[in-house]
Specification:
Elements (H helix, E strand, L loop, with lengths): L5 H9 L7 H16 L1 H25 L3 E7 L5 E6 L5 H26 L3 H16 L5 H20 L2 H18 L1 H12 L7 H9 L3 H23 L14
Antiparallel strand pairs: 1-2
Helix pairs in contact: 2-3, 2-7, 3-4, 4-7, 4-9, 4-10, 5-6, 7-10, 8-10, 9-10
């Protein structure tokens, strides 16, 4: 591997890259949708959503002054983030709120970066987030999940060509935007069957007095708004879509 100076690396990360062809954006969008809708694929891909979910809890715990004890990710795609502080109050409310809204907001942030041509920056920003989470992981499966995800992103960003990087980056953004609503639906189904008495929505209901269903509706609204806004940023401009000439 050729030597790369710090300046070259910085320019590489912060520079802009050309927009990918429209057909590539469309294909990876369909792949992301299929990953959300196909049960067996979803059970594996959902780990990415869990990482973003628990990362949201952890970030807001730190921002609101709580002490973060650790994060665990489990093979059934569940997770838990443990923080210490007041059991009630704004800090705990925002920490509990952050989980379900983190994936769609992260997908929207990725869409903003990609719309600005910051493909490499988006990939390396993802690596930075994973590295920050890594130091707080407290179980073997969680460690494996973070390291494996980071290794894939690093491999694509360092070794992949422009189209590979663009395709992967747009796939990640599409997936987070499209996937954000499914856990919310699953949450409400479990709540309806009284199988999730300690869910984020029910914890928020206990702390605020606002019904759990209202919090679920808020989670769903954030996911929908992020999908609409992020999708508008990711979909190519119609002027950039050109079909091949057909023989006359």
């Amino acid at each position: 591997m050729e030597d790369v100076s710090i300046t070259d690396l910085w320019d590489r990360v912060t520079g802009t890259q050309p927009d990918p062809p429209w057909w590539l954006v469309a294909i990876v969008g369909l792949v992301a949708l299929a990953a959300v809708l196909h049960g067996p694929t979803w059970r594996v891909a959902r780990n990415v959503v869990t990482i973003a979910h628990e990362g949201g809890h952890a970030l807001l715990a730190l921002v609101t002054g709580r002490k973060l004890d650790g994060i665990k990710l489990h093979s059934d795609t569940s997770g838990v983030t443990v923080s210490r502080g007041k059991p009630h109050g704004p800090g705990m409310v925002f920490t509990a709120l952050a989980g379900y809204i983190a994936p769609p907001l992260l997908g929207l942030l990725f869409a903003v970066l990609l719309a600005g041509g910051r493909i490499t920056l988006m990939l390396w920003f993802s690596l930075a987030l994973l590295a920050a989470m890594l130091v707080m992981i407290r179980n073997a499966y969680g460690l494996l999940s973070i390291v494996a995800t980071g290794a894939i992103i690093f491999g694509v960003s360092w070794l992949g060509g422009p189209k590979i990087q663009a395709g992967f980056a747009y796939l990640a953004a599409w997936f987070l935007l499209l996937a954000a609503a499914r856990p919310v639906v699953e949450l409400q189904r479990m709540r309806a069957r009284r199988m999730a008495p300690s869910s984020d929505a029910d914890q928020l209901a206990h702390m605020t007095g606002v019904p759990g269903l209202a919090w679920v509706m808020l989670f769903a609204a954030v996911a929908l708004v992020a999908l609409v806004a992020g999708g508008a940023l990711l979909v190519p401009d119609s002027s950039a879509v050109s079909l091949p000439d057909l023989p006359g």
